[in-house]
Amino acid sequence: MKTRKITGFLLCLALIAALLFGALSSTATAQSGALQLWTKFNDQNPQNTQDKWLADVIARYRAEFGIEVANTFQPFDQINAKLNVAVQARGEVPDVSYVDSQQLGFFEQNGTLTDLTDWVKSRPWFADVDPGALAACTTPDGRILCVPAHAAVHFLYYWTDIYPDGVPATTDEFLAKAAELKAANPNAFAFTGKLAEKISVERFYYNLIVSYGGQIADSEGRAVWANEATLKTVEFARALFANGYAAQESLAPGFDNEQPFMRGEAGAFVAGSYSYVYLTPITAPDGTEFKGEITGTFDPEALSVGAALKAGKLSIAPQFAAPGGKPASLIVASGWGIPVGAQNVEAAQAFIDFQMTTAENVAYSAAYGALPALISAAAAEEFQTPYWVAVAEIQREYATPSPTLADYDKGITLLGDAIVRLITNPSLDIMATLQAAQDEYNAGLD
Amino acid sequence: MVTSKTTRRFDQISTHFVLGLFALLALFPIAYTLMTSFKSQDEVLTRPPTFFPPTWRFDGYETVFNSDMTRYYLWNSLFNSTTASLVVVTLASLASYTFSRYRFRGSRTLELAILALMMIPGLTNLVPLYRIASDLGVLRPQGINAHLFISAVYTAGGLPFAIWIIKSFFDNIPIELEEAALIDGCTPIQALIRVVMPLAAPGLMAAFLLMFVDTWNEFLAALVLLNGTARTVTVGLYDFQSSFEIAYHVWTAACIVIMLPVLLLFALLRKRFFEAMLQGALKG
Amino acid sequence: MTNLSWRAKADALPHTFSSGRNYRWLPLWFLLPSIVVLLALQVYPTLYSVYLSTTRVRRGEFLHVGLANFERLLQTPSFWESLRVSLTYSLAYITLTVSIGLMLALLLNRRFKFTGVYLVIIFIPWVISEVVAGTMWRWLFQPTYGLAQAWINTYLPFLGEQLYTTSSGALAIVIAAAVWRGLAFTTLLSLGALQTVPQEIIESASLDGANRFQRFFGVILPQIRSTVLVMVLLTSIQSINSVGLIFSITRGGPGGATRTAAYYLLQIGWEQGDFGTGAAVSVILFLINMSLTILYLSIIGRRRD
To answer: What is the second-level CATH architecture of the domain A34-151+331-398?
Structure first.
C-alpha cells in the first residue's frame, strides 16, 4: 500500500509540474499576430553561431519594425519534409521558411513553394544577387522559388603536417600518396568524409562524377548515372576503403566521419565552407590543439579552424579531380521561401526584404559559414580573410549546379545506397548495380 | 528419485550461471552508457576505449541540463505520458469491463475489431493525423494544444492493447462478488468502483506501467506531429544525434536523463506489475 | 444493442441490473468514449491512408491514380529488398526472443534464490526507449571508439573488424539490440504461462524418467502452447512495425542493408514526401500483419477444439 501511495503522489506531482512548465513556457512565447518563421536554427536556446544569429535578428527586427517573429526550430534533416507535409495538409503553414536550394526539385514536384519570380525581379536588391546563387533557386523552366541568402561549395580541409605540398590534385595521385601514408603509419587515414547516405552524393560522389565528365541526371529530370564516370568514381571509392585509406566512420550514419579529422588521424576531410562552425576543438596530427570559442561575433578567425589556418597547420583545397579533369564542387544555396498557403505573404516579403539588405546578408552568411548571395555583401570586410578568399576562388572556378533529378531525394538516396552497397560488397558488378538503381528511379517517375 | 543431491547442486549452479550471464548482458550496455556519460569529450575518444572514466566529469550532464532536453522535452514527455496513460487506463477499464460482463449483438465482433486495430503499423496514420492536427490548428509548439493532441493520439494507440490486458484481469474476477454487491443494493457503477476495481488494481497498475513506458518511448508520432519546444525526449535525443556535433558523452548523458523517470516508475511499480503479469495475464 | 444480457447468468440477476431502465444503456456509455477515440484517431486516419494510397502528387498536382501506386511498388526492387530485410529481421527476432525467453523462464521457474532479482534486471532493457537503446548500441559498436567493437577485435576477431559499417554486421547489431530489448517481454509472458502449469505434471514426467528435452517438448510445451503462439504473434507484429531502433542505430544503412519495409515506408512516405506510395506500403504491411494474425489465431483455435 505504501508504494502505491508514493507512486500516486509522485505521479500527481509530475503531472502538476509538467502542467506548470507547459503553461509557463506557453504564456511566455505565445503570440498570435507574430510572423511565423521556420528555420533549422534554435533561437530559444542558442548553441552555436547560427542559433545566436537568429536570436539577434529576431531582436533587431522587433526593435526596428515592431514586428514579432515566432521561430519554430526544425532539425536540419526534417525541415524540408515537414514543410512539404504542412503544405500538403493545407492547414497551418509558416509565413516564411528556411529552404535548402538542392531540394528545389522536391519542392517543385510537390508544389510546396510559391512562385516568387515577378516579385523577386521587382526588388531593388535583385541586381545585387549573385547569378550562381540565384540559379540555385531557379527551376529549369525559369521560375524563382526561393530567395538565396548564401551559396556554399564543398572542398577539402587538410592537415599540412600530412600533406606539406598540398593534397594531390587527381584521384590517381591521391591513391599513390595514400599508399605511402599508410605504409608510414598504419593507424592514420589519408581521408575521411561523409561517404554514405544521400548527403554523400551532394558532398562527394556527384562532384567526382562531374569531374570524370559524367552527369547523374538529364534535363528531363531522369537519372543517367549508369555511366563510365560513375564507374570510375565507384572504383576510386572502393580503393579508398579496400586499402584502409579512408576512415570507416565515412560509412557510418550521422557525422561520425568528422571525428578522425578533428583528432588529426585523417589527413584530409571533405566538407562544406560552413563546416568550420562544427570543427571545434581540433587537434593537428602533431598534437597541436586548437580550441576556438563560439562567440556571437561571427568571426571565423576566432574559431578553431581559423586558428589552425592562421598557424599554417590547416589548409583548404578543391576536391581531387579525375586525371586530366577539372575539380567540381556542388554549389548549394540556402534561401527563404514562402510556402503555398502562407497567411501573411506581405509580412513574409517584408522579412525577406530585410534579410536582403547588405548588412543583414553579411551577418547571416558569416554566422552560417558561407559566402553571401548579395555581391555587395560578399565585398564586405568579413569575407576578405585568407580563408574566405580561398573559398571564393574555389567557388568561382569549380562551382557546379545541382543535379536536375525530378525526384531529388529519392534519386540521391538510390544512388548513394547503390554506391555504398558496391563499396561494402566488392564482388557486386558496378555497372549492373548502377543500372538497376537508375532503372528503379526512372520507372518511379511517371 | 532421479534427481540426486549432486545433480540438484549442479542444476543450481548452472541456473545461476545462465541467469547471471543474461542479467549481465542486460545491464552491460546501460552500465557502459552510464560510464561514458561521466567522461569528457577527449576521454570518450580514446583508443583503445576504456570502460571506466579516468576522471569523473559532468561535462555531458552540464550540456544536457542547459539544453532544451531539460527545459522542455522532459516535462512535455512527463505530461503526455501521464495524461495518456491515465486516460487509457480509465477508458480501457470501462470498455473491458463491458466486454467482460455483457453480451450483446455484435459484442464479440466489436471486441475483435478493436483488437485488430493493433495490427495497423504506427506509421500508417501519421500523415492523416498530421492533417487532422493541421485542421484543428494544434501544430504550433506554443500552448498546451499540441500536448493534448498527441496525448489523444497515444490514447487511441494504446487503447486496444490496454483493453485486451485489462479484460483478462476482469475475466479472472468471480462474477459472484458483484452479484452479492448488487443484492446488497449497490448500483452497477458502485459495484464496479467498490468491488471490481480494487480487485483488478494490480492489473490496472500493470496496464498503466505498460502504457506509460510505451508512450514515453514513442518516437514517430512525436517526430511528425510535434514542433519546436513541444517535442518529447525521444525526438530531442534524436536531435542531439543528428546535429552536426559529435559528442557521445553528451548523448549518453541525455540517455541516462531520459531513462531515469521510467526506471523510477518501474522500480516503484515493479512488484505489483510482476504479480499482475505472472498471475497469468494474456492467456490465449 | 437492445439485446443486452448479463453474461452467463442473466436469470440470477437482480431486477435493477438486467432490465432496469436506468442501467440498460450502461454498457453503451462504458464503451462509447473508447469507440469515439478509436474511430477518430485510428479508424478514420487508417481509412484516409487507404484513400491516400490511390493518390499521388506530381508537378504540384494532386492526382487520383487508382492502384498505380501498388503496381509500381510491386515492381520496385528496393521495396522487395526491404521486404527481404524485414523477413530476416523478423525471423531472427522472433526465434531469438521467444526461444531465449522460454529458456530464461524455465530457469526462473525453478525458483532458486534471487529469481526475483534476475527477473527485474532482465526486464530493465524493456523500459528503455528504442531511440535511447539504439543510441547505446550505436555507441557500443562505433567503429573506432566503441567498446564492444574493440573487444570483438581483440577476443573475437572472426566476427569482423567493422561490424557497424558492413551489411551483415549492421543487421546483426540491430537484431541484437532488438532482442536485448524484447527479451524482457517474452521471458515474462513465458514465466506467467509456466506458473499455470501444475508442478505435479512436471514432476510426474520426471518420475517417468523423461529427460529434460522430452519433458519440455512433450509435457510443458503443449500446456503453454497458446501463450507461445500469442508471443510469436506479438513479436511478429512488433518486428514488422518497428523502426525506432533502426532509425537510431543505422538509419537503414549501410546502403539499405538494414532498411526494413517499415523503414522503407518512413523513408519514402515521410522523408521523401511521397505520401501516396508510403500509404500503399502501409496498406501492404497491414495486410501482412492481418494475415499473420488470422493464421495464428486459427492455429490457436484449432488446438483448443
So the answer is: 3-Layer(aba) Sandwich (3.40)
B93 in the same domain as B33: no
Query: B266 with B181, same domain?
Result: yes
Predicted pLDDT of residue C103:
93
Which residue matches cell numbers 541568402?
A149
Is C45's CB within 8 Å of B128's CB?
yes
Q: ipTM of this predicted complex?
A: 0.89
How would you classify residue A186: left for phi > 0, otherwise alpha for psi between -120 and 50, otherwise beta?
Answer: alpha
As a whole number of angstroms, the distance between CA A150 and CA A297 comes to 18
Indicate yes or no: CB of A92 within 8 angstroms of CB of B272.
Answer: no
Q: Nine-digit cell at A125?
A: 536588391
B169 within a domain of the structure (yes/no):
yes
Which chain B residues are within 8 Å of C248, Cβ to Cβ?
237-238, 241
- CB contact B147 to A (< 8 Å): yes
Q: How high is the pLDDT of residue A88?
A: 86
Which residues on neighbouring strands pair with residue A157, listed in sequence order?
A269, A316
pTM: 0.90
For C126, the grid coordinates are 524493456
Query: What is the per-residue pLDDT for A20?
Result: 56
pLDDT at site C2: 33
Residue B278 grid cell: 505472472
How many domains in chain B?
Answer: 2
pLDDT in tens, B98-140: 888 888 888 888 988 888 888 888 888 888 999 888 888 888 8
For A154-330+407-443, CATH number out of 3.40.710.10, 3.40.50.11240, 3.40.190.10, 3.40.50.300 equals 3.40.190.10
pLDDT mean over A58-82: 90
Q: Do C272 and A110 touch (CB under 8 A)?
A: no
Largest separation between any pair of C-alpha atoms in chain B: 75
- Chain A interface includes B141 (CB < 8 A): yes
Asked whether the beta carbons of residue A22 and residue B75 sit closer than 8 angstroms, the reply is yes
The CA distances from residue A328 to A130, A227, A317, A388, A413, in Å, are 19, 17, 12, 18, 20
Q: Which residue type sits at C284? A: I
**With contacts defined as CB-CB under 8 Å, which chain B residues touch A263?**
45
Q: Does B78 touch chain A (CB under 8 A)?
A: yes
Range of the domain at B122: 65-278
What nine digits make up the cell of C51? Answer: 484513400
B 219-248: CB under 8 A from A? 223-224, 227-229, 238-239, 241-246
Buried residues in A44-53 as b, exposed as e (16+ CB within 10 A): bebbbbbbbb
B144 touches chain A (CB under 8 A): yes
**Taking CA atoms, what residue in C is nearest to A187?**
C144
- Cβ–Cβ contact B72 with A under 8 A: yes
On the question of pLDDT at C304 being above 70, the answer is no
The domains of chain A are located at: 34-151+331-398, 154-330+407-443
Nearest to C110 by CA among C227, C262, C184, C220: C220
Of C162, C167, C273, the CB nearest to A81: C273
Is the predicted pLDDT of residue B64 greater than 80, yes or no? Answer: yes
* Mean pLDDT calculated for residue range A141-167: 93
Q: Which candidate, A193, A200, A167, A131, places its Cα nearest to that of A417? A: A200
| C76-304 carries CATH number 1.10.3720.10 | yes
pLDDT tens per residue across span A334-363: 999 999 999 999 999 999 999 999 999 999
- Given a contact cutoff of 8 angstroms between Cβ atoms, the answer to whether A113 and A340 are in contact is yes
Residues whose CB is less than 8 angstroms from the CB of residue B11 and which lie 6 or more positions away in sequence, other chains included:
B3, C110
* Burial readout A308-320 (b: 16 or more C-beta within 10 A, e: otherwise): bbeeebbbbbbbb
Residues B171 and B272 occupy one common structural domain: yes
pLDDT of C50 strictly over 90 = yes
